[in-house]
Amino acid sequence: MNEIRRGTLQEQTFYEQVGGEETFRRLVHRFYEGVAEDAELRAMYPEEDLGPAEERLRLFLIQYWGGPTTYSERRGHPRLRMRHAPFTVDRAAHDAWLRHMRVAVDDLGLAPEHEQTLWNYLTYAAASMINTPD
Ligand code: HEM
């Protein structure tokens, strides 16, 4: 890409490595298509329109992986566990969330190494969001 400053290029962020905004747009859009068709999980989302929730998750993931910090400019510190406190995130909700995310990740067709990095994070983050025992 930069033929003059070869070797001095900044290391790319994960966000850039996987294709930037477009990749996260596709990921989260596919995820919410799954949510929309899952009556149980859908019932957890308070808004009639899933669009704003889709945008929040997209902006959060973009920021987390090194892209623009629009999420925090709009929403402040993520405090995700606190933001999930009003919802019953039990094992079943966790499994459903990850099931739809798995489909969305698969659809991206990332390089195996990138896919693993993303999936490891998502599984770890989902486990840490559980706030209600079975
Ligand atoms: C484990 C299962 C999970 C369930 C059932 C769940 C459910 C929900 C629900 C019902 C909302 C409210 C919709 C909204 O107003 O945005 C929400 C918001 C959100 N969730 Fe989750 N979530 C889960 C895991 C996660 C994970 C693992 C992440 C991050 C990797 C995440 C990131 C977010 C973000 C960024 C928001 C919007 C926060 C805000 O700015 O208000 N969620 N989630």
Which SSEs are present, and which pair or pack?
Elements: H1 14-17, H2 21-36, H3 39-42, H4 51-64, H5 70-75, H6 80-84, H7 91-108, H8 112-129
Protoporphyrin IX containing FE binds near residues 60, 75 and 97.
CATH architecture, please?
A: Orthogonal Bundle
| CATH secondary-structure class | Mainly Alpha
Strand fraction equals: under 5%
* Biggest pleated-sheet summary: none
N-to-C SSE string, H for helix and E for strand: HHHHHHHH
Describe, in short, the structure shown:
This protein has 134 residues and is an all-alpha fold. The protein contains eight helices and no strands.
Structure description:
With 134 residues, the protein is mainly alpha-helical. The protein has a single domain (18-129), classed as Globins (Globin-like, Orthogonal Bundle). The chain contains eight helices and no strands. The chain has helices at residues 14-17, 21-36, 39-42, 51-64, 70-75, 80-84, 91-108, 112-129. It is globular and about 55 Å long. The mean pLDDT is 94. The protein binds protoporphyrin IX containing FE (HEM). Protoporphyrin IX containing FE binds at residues 44-45, 53, 56-57, 60, 75, 80, 83-84, 87, 89, 93-94, 97, 125-126, 129.
Overview features:
single chain; 134 residues; mainly alpha; Globin-like; 8 helices; globular; binds protoporphyrin IX containing FE
